[in-house]
């Protein structure tokens, strides 16, 4: 695969994740009825849910900016980890959160060669 194809693939996946996280954060920040109903079923009040949406949008912005994208990736991975645990705790399906987590890691591996190298290389030069 050419470098151009790899770069385009990375950015396409980034845009897809960006749209997904934007929609999710928007629903939390605007206090969408469906989102609030799910949050209350988990025992999360509206103010806390808005704060979670704020954390999500900040993490997403960091993920989209190339200079801070690795930090944003790690924050979104942690965010999704919390979502997975919350769903497990309440016997809800974790499939969607796990799929998004996998796509996020694939995107990070494509966009950040240095991260891919550190995670996948077995030889330690030090």
Which tags fit this structure?
80% helix; mainly alpha; 6 helices; 126 residues; single chain
Task: Please describe the topology of this protein.
Layout (H helix, E strand, L loop, with lengths): L2 H27 L3 H9 L4 H19 L4 H21 L5 H17 L1 H8 L6
Helix pairs in contact: 1-3, 1-5, 3-4, 4-5, 5-6
Structural commentary:
The protein is an all-alpha fold and 126 residues long. It has one domain. Helix content is 80%, strand content 0%. The protein is built from 6 helices and no strands. The protein has helices at residues 3-29, 33-41, 46-64, 69-89, 95-111, 113-120. Helix 4 (69-89) runs antiparallel to helix 5 (95-111) and helix 5 (95-111) crosses helix 6 (113-120). The mean pLDDT is 92.
Give a brief outline of the structure:
With 126 residues, the chain is mainly α.
Number of domains: 1
- Shape by Cα distribution: elongated
Which parts are unreliable, with pLDDT below 50 for 5 consecutive residues or more?
A: none
Residues in helices, as a percent range: over 70%
**Content of β-strand:** under 5%
Task: Tally the beta strands.
Answer: 0
Q: Rg, please?
A: 16 Å
Q: Which structural class best describes the helix and strand composition? A: mainly alpha
Number of helices: 6
For the largest beta-sheet, the strand count, sense and barrel status come to: none
- Report, as a whole number of angstroms, the end-to-end distance: 30 Å
Compute the average pLDDT. 92
Order of helical and strand elements: HHHHHH
Keywords: Membrane, Transmembrane, Transmembrane helix
Organism: Elizabethkingia anophelis
Subcellular location: Membrane
Membrane topology: Multi-pass membrane protein
């Amino acid at each position: 695969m050419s470098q151009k194809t790899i770069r385009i693939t990375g950015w396409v996946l980034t845009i897809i994740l960006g749209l997904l996280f934007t929609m999710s954060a928007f629903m939390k920040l605007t206090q969408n009825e469906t989102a609030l109903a799910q949050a209350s079923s988990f025992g999360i009040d509206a103010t806390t849910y808005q704060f979670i949406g704020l954390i999500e949008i900040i993490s997403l912005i960091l993920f989209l900016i190339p200079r801070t994208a690795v930090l944003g990736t790690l924050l979104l991975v942690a965010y999704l980890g919390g979502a997975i645990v919350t769903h497990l705790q309440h016997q809800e399906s974790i499939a969607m959160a796990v799929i998004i987590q996998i796509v996020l890691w694939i995107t990070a591996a494509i966009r950040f060669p240095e991260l891919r190298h550190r995670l996948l290389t077995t030889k330690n030069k030090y």
